[in-house]
């Protein structure tokens, strides 16, 4: 019978070991001190979640390489639900058939294989990827340039969508109390959930508009030139029921947003 890693002492009711991480020391120092006492692998509780702490390279290799599938799924979080189209974005979705299928779709090899001008794309992507800008990735994904998009928006400031992407990145990396203590979600401490919903709405507004334009072009047969990624997704998602119970539109928008955020350098969104 395998023995579970020991749990650090000092947990409080409801909040767990948060009290040990709220002192003057940075969290990694506090956890390092606990590792000196409990060994290279132990657990702590953060609210309702039990966290495995590993501070040994051999143990880390076991977790992240040898048994990586067991650790591939993240705990549920508010940002993944609201900002990530209810866990539809690749980086937020749990490991499984859907995750593997979407990963295959957005890998460069699969994209190239389904593009008529594959050799050109291969050369350009290699040259761009290290310092790719928001303009370029929008051109690739939805055949739009950011400057073209903002010039046609009369009701909002030109920087709002760019700011929404920046805020998305900030909110997705923020600690949210209700992730550890779900019973407190109704309080929306700090107004984080309200901000997430506003940001998600702003981003989805643009994605929905682009998706409808792509659908209209496909229906009318007026698609000209090379297909962009959103066109490719429209073709691949005809039989979406094989992937999950998510709608094809949601998968398309979430996957395109994954590429836009992943390829845009954070500094370019400031």
From TrEMBL:
**Sorted alphabetically, which Gene3D superfamilies does this protein's record hold?**
Cytochrome P450
Which parts form a coiled-coil structure per UniProt? none
Please tell me whether the keyword Iron-sulfur is annotated for this protein: no
According to the lineage, what is the superkingdom? Eukaryota
- Give the residue spans that cross the bilayer: none
Xref: SUPFAM superfamilies: Cytochrome P450
Key words of the record:
Heme, Iron, Membrane, Metal-binding, Monooxygenase, Oxidoreductase, Transmembrane, Transmembrane helix
Its needed co-factors are: heme
What's the protein name?
Answer: Cytochrome P450
Q: Which organism is it from?
A: Salix brachista
- Localization per Swiss-Prot or TrEMBL: Membrane
Q: Which InterPro entries match?
A: Cyt_P450 (IPR001128), Cyt_P450_E_grp-I (IPR002401), Cyt_P450_sf (IPR036396), Plant_Cytochrome_P450_Monoox (IPR050651)
An example of a GO molecular function for this protein is: oxidoreductase activity, acting on paired donors, with incorporation or reduction of molecular oxygen
- Can you name a GO cellular component term? membrane
